[in-house]
Amino acid sequence: MLPPAMPNANLFAALRAAFPEDLDACAIECAEALPDGSTPRYSWRDIDRGTAMMANLLSSLELPKGSRIAVQTEKSVEALMLYLAVLRAGYVVLPLNTAYQASELEYFIANAGPAVVVCSGQHFGWVSKLAFVAGTSYVFTLNDDRTGSLLERAAHCSDQHVVAVKRADELAAILYTSGTTGRSKGVMLSHGNLLSNALTLKSYWGWRTPAEGGDVLIHALPIFHVHGLFVACHGALLNGSKMIWFGKFEPQAVIRRLPEATVFMGVPTLYVRMLAEPALDREACRPMRLFISGSAPLLIDTFKDWQTRTGHTILERYGMSETLMLTSNPCKPENGERVGGTVGPALPGVQVRIVDDQGRACATDEIGHIQVKGPNVFNGYWRMPEKTREEFSADGWFKTGDVGQCDAKNYVRIVGRSKDLIISGGYNVYPAEVEGYLNELAGVAESAVIGVPHPDFGEGVVAVLVARTGAHVDGSAVMAQLKGRIANFKQPKRVFVVAELPRNTMGKVQKNLLREQYKAAFI
For the residues 98-108, what does the mean pLDDT come to? Predict the structure, then answer.
């Protein structure tokens, strides 16, 4: 869906226009108490005034047009306001994962060249040194208890601000990829990219306005990532919906608040952790309208267990930093059913195709490379024009790097990442296919299949398993059970059982770490 024509395409202008008429109504209710025992509530007026004051502070610095504002702080409502204030003032926000360490932050600051860096107070010493050496003009602090130099300075600024005028194609955010292979790339997202995707999801996921009974979102995700910041926050703000705000996910606490909400967004790990709680049942989920999962594959067992326990069917969707959301299982019954193990068809206004190695369209259910085109697709990689050209086809489609297939109903099923493809003895092995068989075996909770150097086959298939609680899994027995079920070249030649799989902050299994750990398995 394209943004409607308007004189100011600044994303903040669209979000602000969606605020309800009653600005004194609650916009965000914090689920956790501050050290002083208070549990803050923020009205829509608070958000309007707070973002205006922060925007005025940034404007007072007289920064060059297009300046980047890098933010690495703990999750807080003030951090969300800072993001909105950067948009409001017309600058470019650079949200950074709180897990990044000094060497990583040094690269991001040097690469993006931010004029302002905002960090947690406890990290000010080393972050400010990195920033000032790189030429950053200002470093502020912002903590999750409503303290910090940013708020102290902003408190002296006016709470009235005229939103900066931006074009739809102007840069709004730079989001760095995880960098599992080589240096991280800065994904450039425009105001038009972000707004078009938010409008599409608002319609497709059936966000209910206050006049229709209203939706309430439980927000328990980080806000340095597409899922928590661009999908969850934009969704609630663009709909004028209240958020119940968790600084950190805690399954028991989230379950207690489900009766007060209608929408929840999470990564698969969050659903697994809630399923482990006895309090999760149909009564707890009775007022809920929609559970959404993304950022990592959802196991079919989790999908089915959630249906059984809660009576709700999780909606799984597919997105990435470069494209925002590009497919989704249906929300409304008239659009079809939600199918476990798939990420649904392409969203309205988005084109998705699957092609072979030569760029030819794949047949139904044939495995190939997923490519996408639409107003949601990014402008390119920051200061990497050659890499940008490499990632687009000659006819303008973005190469996602994911491998998948599309069925007769146009539902997409992701098989894996191109870089995770294993070529063993000249045959292609798709890890997700083998993982599907492994996860069906008794005692197996989850699995990760990787390829590592092999003297005879080039790459040998290795399976890394996690056993279910109380179960014993034997690697030799697993290999024996797979014989006759899948082709010999797909069968793992080594099986390792571990306590847990390495994951990033969004729950994705870090197969690059597994490949490094088991690279000598056949040597």
Answer: 88
